[in-house]
Amino acid sequence: xxxxxxxxxxxxxxxxxxxxxxxxxxxxxxxxxxxxxxxxxxxxxxxxxxxxxxxxxxxxxxxxxxxxxxxxxxxxxxxxxxxxxxxxxxxxxxxxxxxxxxxxxxxxxxxxxxxxxxxxxxxxxxxxxxxxxxxxxxxxxxxxxxxxxxxxxxxxxxxxxxxxxxxxxxxxxxxxxxxxxxxxxxxxxxxxxxxxxxxxxxxxxxxxxxxxxxxxxxxxxxxxxxxxxxxxxxxxxxxxxxxxxxxxxxxxxxxxxxxxxxxxxxxxxxxxxxxxxxxxxxxxxxxxxxxxxxxxxxxxxxxxxxxxxxxxxxxxxxxxxxxxxxxxxxxxxxxxxxxxxxxxxxxxxxxxxxxxxxxxxxxxxxxxxxxxxxxxx
Amino acid sequence: xxxxxxxxxxxxxxxxxxxxxxxxxxxxxxxxxxxxxxxxxxxxxxxxxxxxxxxxxxxxxxxxxxxxxxxxxxxxxx
Lengths: 377, 78
Prior knowledge:
The structure holds 2 protein chains of 2 kinds. Chain A has helices at 11-14, 41-58, 62-72, 80-110, 115-123, 129-140, 148-157, 162-174, 177-186, 189-212, 221-225, 240-275, 278-285, 292-300, 307-319, 324-336, 339-345, 351-375. Chain A is mainly α. In chain A, helix 12 crosses helix 15. Chain B has 3 helices and 4 strands, in the order E-H-E-H-E-E-H. Chain B has helices at 12-28, 40-45, 69-77, and strands at 2-7, 32-37, 53-56, 59-63. In chain B, strand 1 (2-7), helix 1 and strand 2 form a beta-alpha-beta unit. In chain B, helix 1 (12-28) packs across helix 3 (69-77). Chain B is globular and about 35 Å long. Chain A binds chain B through residues 4-7, 18-20, 28-35, 37, 114-116, 119, 142-143, 146-147, 149-151, 153-155, 157-158, 222, 225-231, 233-234, 347-348, and chain B through 8-14, 16, 40-41, 43-51, 60-70.
């Protein structure tokens, strides 16, 4: 889930998806453009193959190209400014290219899923297996937080247990596909995989605990009286070309919206890279500063920024010697829990229930931060 | 006269959906009444769990995300 398109959420904090300014988020909020009907499938296949080939040809050239550019300037490569400049010139095109690839792949793959199908799949599930299924589907289903309330009502009234619904709502933002892809490319596959596993685990366990607490009474009173209508949407058969087009639409939509935020994240990353003293950073965010994990979570929860803004900053922090767990706990707190999202959920959940929800997920992130710091030395 | 309802909390995508429907109806010269349903309980009553949704003459034709212009044309002509 991405924090987006809610009128109630102050735009200044959300800076988000479906709307004006924006952070990342491949949310299903608008994967469609005025499509020219009847574009031949072959053309989509050829265009995609060509695009992929071009991507693969250009990507390895980015680093030598950036170094070449820096060498052209009068700036000394070994200086702080040279370091920062090289970071920007290499990272900006790199992150943008990665973003295009990740968003395309996500848009394509998500065309195989829909909220309605997910609801049907989860409706019959018991707790336990249902939580695992919900967490997994939460990652795969295109969905944005402007739909959080209808989705919540739809799930609960279709007989999806409350805890299972929470597993879905936690996993959707927690395991962010852009964060996953960028971690994979910028930090390493081990870290990406561990993030995926831990993110899913938090969603499953938090949902299980919330389910066991039997908090149905803490929903807003009107929610229990909602009668869900029954509707059968016309069956939409998508061709492969439609799915490739869906991938391309999300690229156009999301990249146009986030490039500025990516640039901002890379700018901050470059400052850290060039100018923050390594010793200072290690003292604050290093492995030995035990208090930095809870501090990172507490600071991260009310903040909201998209994964593509936060990842270049994280890359720079890690390169400078910040502890991986601390940095990832911060990232997860920023992208998974946010004030605007809570404001939206307040429509259906009481403040007590939201507090329990945030508390459990926050503790999960805290645990993951410490575990990461133990695992990756 | 087609009776069209756009279901959604009033988010930008819902607004874009309503604008798109109106623009396509004008283009095709189809007379419509357009109403926005923002009440969550009422949206649930239509049986959808993803917004924006589009309802034409009482029938849900779309749920979740901005519809394609070509699809909107199809609904208006149908």
